[in-house]
Amino acid sequence: MLYTAENERITAVAYEGEFRRRMAHLDSTSYQIIVEELNRVVDGNDVHTSSWIPGHDWRGTLYEPIWRSCKMNSEVAAKFYGQILYKVMMDRPEKWCFGSYPHARGKTYFRIH
């Protein structure tokens, strides 16, 4: 479950129309593998910064299909990846919130206890 800083539950991916359009270009098997990996990474830790998870070069990694589905546009792929992680965090059973910080690109997620 994902919450705002004001403790309001988030139930939709940011820029949902763009997310749906991008999802149409990513095969469901690749999406499922990415979701499973993101859940594995998130399990057991209370803080995650989105841009630190996949690394810089996605070629040859399970994140490469995101990049390819975005016509190898790294900026668009990074945004799409961020939306996928956002959805993963929304779908988790624990309570999470997030913020943006100057030391890192993307969002930093915090588990709320």
Mean pLDDT score: 94
Task: Give a short account of the largest sheet.
Answer: 5 strands, mixed
Helix content: 40-55%
Extract low-pLDDT stretches.
none
How many individual helices? 4
- Dominant shape: globular
Please report the distance between the alpha carbons of the first and last residues: 12 Å
The ordered H/E elements are: EEHHEHHEE
Class by helix and strand content? alpha+beta
Strand numbers in spatial order across the main sheet:
2-1-4-5-3
Number of domains: 1
Strand tally, please? 5
Proportion of residues in β-strands? 5-15%
**Rg computed from alpha carbons, rounded to a whole number of angstroms:** 14 Å
Would you mind describing this structure in some detail?
This protein is an alpha+beta fold. It has one domain (2-111). The chain has four helices and five strands; from the N terminus they run E-E-H-H-E-H-H-E-E. It has helices at 16-23, 28-42, 64-69, 74-91; strands spanning 2-3, 9-10, 47-49, 96-99, 108-111. The protein has a five-stranded mixed beta sheet with strand order 2-1-4-5-3. Strand 1 (2-3) and strand 2 (9-10) form a beta hairpin. The longest helix is centred in the C-terminal third of the chain and has 18 residues, at 74-91.
Topology:
Layout: E1 2-3, E2 9-10, H1 16-23, H2 28-42, E3 47-49, H3 64-69, H4 74-91, E4 96-99, E5 108-111
Parallel strand pairs: 1-4
Antiparallel strand pairs: 1-2, 3-5, 4-5
